[in-house]
Sequence to fold (203 residues):
Amino acid sequence: MEEKVNKFWEWFEANNERLTMLSEYPADEKEKILAELQAELTKYCQGLTYEISEQTKNGRQLVFSAEGDVELFRYVVELVENAPDLDWWEFIPFKQPYGKDLKVHFGKYLYETKKMYFQQLESVEEPDILGIRVAVDGMVAEDDDFLVGVYVTLEAMVGEFDCATLMGYLDVCPVPAEPAKEGFKPLLDFPDFIEWFKTERDK
Fold:
């Protein structure tokens, strides 16, 4: 993949000015530039995506993602490890955590983390694999997109790497009348729980 990595970064450096000055272009031209970036990324590795930040006084961030596909993680790492040192750019592997108190839109659904709960599902056979049940008001059991939206919400809270490598099972249920009595914790505690889980696993 070395040749493909080099070709991607050669294209990026050749188009550095266009990418840096994205906000200066009309919407249609901006979309064209971003589509070119995705096309070049796909040439390097099918399945990778990116997120590009707005420009700040420190420049832009470019986050590369495998969309949770662990088998592609090594390509994300390889890409960032071979990134050139460019002014105004920070290249980041994997989607990063956004915080705890979030409102996440996915499709037609809105997930408010302060109104959600979770509990750990333990497996004797696979103690290192984390199972999570999330309680959500207005759960739509027959819509697969609803479950995907819950996953996206967890990913936004703890980041792509931890969500994909630690969590082996995800279940969704309605919020019980008394969540604490049913063994649920506020979802706002989920990032702290993930850190605790990693510490316990590594002992």
